[in-house]
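Our preliminary data section would be incomplete without showing what the modeling component actually yields. Below, a chain of 71 amino acids is followed by its predicted structure, encoded as tokens that our downstream tools consume directly.
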Amino acid sequence: MMAVRTVFNLFCDCWHLYRKYVTKAISEDEVDVFIQESGELFQKYGQDPLAKDLILAVTNEIERKKENGIE
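Predicted structure:
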């Protein structure tokens, strides 16, 4: 179980990842960078299940907005 401060940092990192990609069209190169950054976050937090869930939530939301043309 992660400490509260670590969870706070995880939420902040996920927010920054979301904010970076949600407002722009993502090219194929940027998809690769997004995947790399997501993987690095997952590793940073020791492959914790909460990290996985939050990163997947960010990924799904970005994908949903892109599919529906919401920017």
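The helical segments are 4-22, 28-44, 49-67. The radius of gyration is 12 Å. Preliminary results of this kind motivate Aim 1 of the renewal.
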